[in-house]
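Deliverable D5.2: sample structural annotation.
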Amino acid sequence: MSGQPPETRVYEVFIRFRREQPFQHAGSVRAVDADLAKRYAQDVFLRRDRYAEVWVVPRDCIAKVERDPWLDQVKFRQTEYRRPSYFTPHLRARGFQKVPALAGPEEERP
């Protein structure tokens, strides 16, 4: 015996409660190996809930995707028509008015 505690890893736990639902991140556990991490995940997160599937993944195997500001601008320009602010000037140019029933309280109603 060397007297040193064994090396542990952090495992992330993802749970799907029903087949038609997406996975949800439940939290993380610290364990020596994957089998022990599965048991810890069951003890900590699944004592009371029924579930369809569970994934236990080592944290160092998860890749972070960095945000690209240039790509965000390109996406915004390509999907501008999906935002309400895109339609307002176009509709007003065609002569459309606000619907009186949806007008704000400060506006005069007929």
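Annotation notes: The first helix runs from residue 34 to 45. The chain is about 30% helix and 20% strand.
The annotation will be released with the project's public dataset once the embargo ends.
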